[in-house]
């Protein structure tokens, strides 16, 4: 027993040892702090922490960055939409909420994904943890956003195989059901697209046009929406270009609204005349999202793409070089590059719509097959279109004056906008129809107007896909 006690150090020895160890540690730490700069110390500490956590933790983390290959990462987008639908009941100290419905202040509020907050999810009994991170760059110029999705290591494969498709599908469903469509306009001062709620009520139901033409367009859109495998199979970007041309007031903008409502796509309305140069165009376009319509109205106006220039690529480059510093505008090659070049392979499910009142003014290169796949003539009223407008506005599908009105419509060029304006003037159907007859009669007398030759025309620039 006594020998045992002899081997145990006394309390004073232990205390002395402890004191000298503490002192040595303090001195060492002081020396380290003095000679190793703080960023290097932080780096070493971080690396140690990572090394230990990867050795001793049984978790695996997927990192989902906001950008991927310089484009918006669709997995990030899907995660954001999916998580927004799950945060309402979250027990957290903060939750972003808001609404962008300017006309309706008491509209239902939406939830955002809180930053640096754990969001738990469960999939087939597997516990998952999401966190969204925002990291500001050193110069505070941009914020890097990413999600970390953590699960137990053994479920890594399962999560990849089943959970990723699960939340992507859920997000797609939510997006399809979302109430609001948005129309984006580009704010050059802020270098950003700004959304406004798109509330154009025109649908294919309310768009007056020849039924055969309408059905063909709807079928074309539906085929496009289901065409993922087709486009992949033939190695082409999943995009479709529509050129809407015809006189003012024949429903080109209404057609864009009908397409957006039918497809449930947001619209990016680009004022091409205000784009400074090709570089800016590229930046603007890569900031647009999938399942959207890029709309360029009046493509014939204001830029050098409008003039029927038969320049070669070399001439085009020279023209760009010759531009003065303060010259604004984009070149034809810039526009062409985005229509079928790099940008188109960046996104998926994109519709590009050009509208013009003067198709003949557009450079043929811009609307050749593969760029503008379908050319749709929005023309003056036919008897069918006129009767459809009357039925919609006045709720009548027959009238004694229909015969003379139909004859006149074939003799004069009258736009649906003009007809709509006439019959909207009163709610009394008789007065409205009489007014319309008089209006058409005056038009005929005034002008000796030419007969309407075409009744709405659709031309597939690329017949293989039609
Ligand atoms: N085909 C149509 N069916 C129903 N309404 C139409 C049609 N075309 C025009 N309208 C009516 O006329 C108005 C103007 O039409 P819209 O702006 O679509 O014509 P547009 O061809 O785009 O004209 P612009 O070339 O001047 O921009 C619409 O708000 C709508 O009320």
Automatic annotation (TrEMBL):
Catalyses: ATP + H2O = ADP + phosphate + H(+)
Q: Where is the AAA+ ATPase domain?
A: 238-382
What species does this protein belong to?
Capsella rubella
Matches recorded under PANTHER family: BCS1 AAA-TYPE ATPASE (PTHR23070)
Q: Name one GO molecular function term.
A: ATP hydrolysis activity
Q: Name one GO biological process term.
A: response to stress
Q: Is ATP-binding included in the keywords of this UniProt record?
A: yes
Named cofactor requirement(s): Mg(2+)
Q: Which family does it belong to?
A: Belongs to the AAA ATPase family. BCS1 subfamily.
Keyword line: ATP-binding, Hydrolase, Magnesium, Nucleotide-binding
The protein's name in its UniProt record: AAA+ ATPase domain-containing protein
